[in-house]
Amino acid sequence: MQRELKLPGQESTKKELIEWIQRNASNKFLARHRLQGQVKNIKSNVNQLQKICKELAAENAQEEWRRNAEDNEQSIAYNQKYKRLWIGQVPTLSQLCQQKLLSLMDTYNNLVRTETLTSKSDPRKLGSIHTQKQQIKRSLDFQHL
Predict the structure, then answer these.
(1) CB of 14 closer than 8 Å to CB of 31
(2) Over pLDDT 90: what percentage of the chain?
(3) Among 13, 10, 70, which Cα is nearest to 39's?
(4) Can you say whether the dihedral through the CA atoms of 108, 109, 110, 113 is positive or negative?
(5) What is the pLDDT of residue 2?
(6) Gap between the Cα atoms of 143 and 87, Å rounded
(7) At 61, is the secondary structure helix, strand, or coil?
């Protein structure tokens, strides 16, 4: 049960040829011709790639060279096991410390308010904490720019 493969055109770029081969060839075939991996890292010229395309699309090509469901499953398993996940920008240590300070200042601020309401302590402490908190927030906003 051979399926027809439509060859890429003669003016196809190296990238288009490699992508076509990677879509249609089995993992064994790709490994044999060293065509696995990212397109930019593959060392082959266009003439070699066109010969490989013709070899793969030939009617007498071995069935094991053609991509099948098992090859797709192997590729998915490989990607899940070895490819790194993209992680967004990691905050700096300074930003993390300032965020922690802000949360601690909020806690302290709430404690001072409670104490002020219950025992009539010095309310000026509250104002200085509020000012420090605003300065830290401004510095965090500046670092995110």
Answers:
(1) no
(2) 1
(3) 13
(4) positive
(5) 47
(6) 19
(7) coil
Low-confidence ranges of the chain (pLDDT < 70): 1-7, 9, 59-60, 108-133, 135, 139-145
**Token representation of residue 21:** 């081969």
Q: With contact defined as beta carbons under 8 Å apart, do 112 and 129 qualify?
A: yes
Q: What six digits make up the tokens of 10?
A: 């003669």
CA distances from 47 to 10, 11, 18 (A): 10, 11, 12
Residue 104 tokens read as 């601690």
- One-letter amino acid for residue 144 of the chain: H
Measured in degrees and rounded to the nearest 5, phi and psi for residue 108 equal -65, -40
pLDDT at position 121: 54
- pLDDT at position 123, please? 53
| CA 25 – CA 35 distance, rounded (Å) | 10
